[in-house]
Amino acid sequence: MLIDSHAHIQGKEYAGEVAAVIARARAAGVETIIAVGGAGDMSSNSDAVALAARFENVYATVGMHPHDAKDVGNDELRALRELTSQPKVIAVGETGLDFYYNHSPHDVQRRVFAQFIQMARATDLPIVVHERDAATQATEMLRVEGGGSLPGVIHCFTGNYDAAFAYLDLGFYLSFTGIITFKNAEPLRDVVRKVPLERILVETDSPYLTPVPHRGKRNEPAYVRFVAETIAKVKGVEPAEIARQTTANVKTLFRI
Ligand SMILES: [Zn+2]
Ligand SMILES: [Zn+2]
Q1: How many angstroms from the chain centroid is the CA of residue 166?
Q2: Do 188 and 179 touch, CB atoms closer than 8 A?
Q3: Can you tell me the mean pLDDT for 69-80?
Q4: Any idea of the CA torsion for 92, 34, 201, 112, to the nearest 10 degrees?
């Protein structure tokens, strides 16, 4: 059985269809889905929490994507802090730094990321980090603000070997998406080859980043098996072993 450790199934892309999406995931061997809040607007958080309340095998996280850091003030932080006390909220995030798209100014992204790191520490929850073109800054912030013991995952990891090992050094897990199935992703598959399986998670980041052979269509949690199968191939182990270990990793990290 697999766990999709990062999906935005509360999004409008699945309106009226969530039960079917979850059923298809189950049928494909995906036992649990983590509905990640913070992609879009604040309602993505309460919607994720509502889904977790409605479906036994769905858990939720609350945060705000670095793209939207400019919209995070004290009111939003207070509301999200309150949501962390809801049952089945298992992490703070997604949060982080995205210096590729730069939808929010860097200093604002850094301020909000620091605030979410503090929220994770104060609530004793792990953190779900989105980082693009900011590995040096993110590792430094996690080291300094995180106090050296904050558990978490770098989701949709697409960095190089040096970045991977800087995060592993901090005790973080690395989560891989359908990007590793893309033809031109050989450098990333090489990173996968070198990262210990004990520190790897799999995710879809649905509705984005649809793996081959469904690339170009809407993504959904059932497709996380294509990510797991690619890791199996790259590492030369059975897909069942990838499922067993990545599921154990999710349960350890998020304490579920
Ligand atoms: Zn992300
Ligand atoms: Zn995401």
Answers
A1: 18
A2: yes
A3: 97
A4: -20
